[in-house]
Amino acid sequence: MAKIIKKFDGGYKFNPFLCEDETNIIIHHALRVNGNIIEVGCNRGLTSLAISKVCPTKIIYAIDCETPTNKDQQYEVVALWAECKGINNIVCINANSQTMDLNLFKDIGMVFIDGDHTYEGVKKDYENSRKLIKEGVIIFHDYKPDTNYIWNEVAKFVDELSIVEDIIIYSDTMLAMMEITK
Fold first, then answer.
1. Which of 153, 162, 160, 69 has its CA nearest to residue 119?
2. Which CATH number fits domain 2-180: 3.40.50.150, 3.90.1150.10, 3.30.70.1450, 2.60.40.10?
């Protein structure tokens, strides 16, 4: 079942690729979960950097890889940003999140899914996240239930998941979140 939350304000302003509310929601959950954090699809690394600033004791795993539609080596951009800013709690991984060895990760409390936006891609990232999190949250980006939206398969998967799981949808954002409890 989906629950809609209207407004969320945590006061954080870091990332021009996310709206302010999205950044606040992600940071809020990063601060409150126990364990390390995975960002699937790190783009320019600004979300990983924002999380690393407020969670310096947590490891942020930034996963990305070259795809036919994305020729940039995004993980290299993240690594360069982190190095330039003297940040040592970001681990950049050049891998396909759907086929990589999950044994690399320990003590995961949050996964932010913003990688492969196909239905199968989001589903596989979700399934892998469930294997890694004993207690924490999975946040989906680009949730927009609009059939004309370029990445509408994210919403299709999340909406189907909401039939069997409790999903929180943050209105005026493109975020949906699932809490995992013991």
1. 153
2. 3.40.50.150
Domain ranges across the chain: 2-180
Q: 145, 128, 147: which is closest to 41 by C-alpha?
A: 128
Do residues 157 and 126 make contact, with C-beta atoms less than 8 angstroms apart? yes
- Between CA 122 and CA 22 the distance in angstroms is 19
Q: How many residues does the chain have?
A: 182
Q: What is the pLDDT along the chain (182 residues), one digit of tens a residue?
A: 555 544 444 444 444 456 778 988 999 999 999 999 999 988 777 888 889 989 999 999 988 876 655 555 565 666 666 666 778 898 888 888 989 889 889 899 999 999 889 999 999 999 999 999 999 999 999 998 877 877 789 999 999 999 999 999 998 899 999 999 98
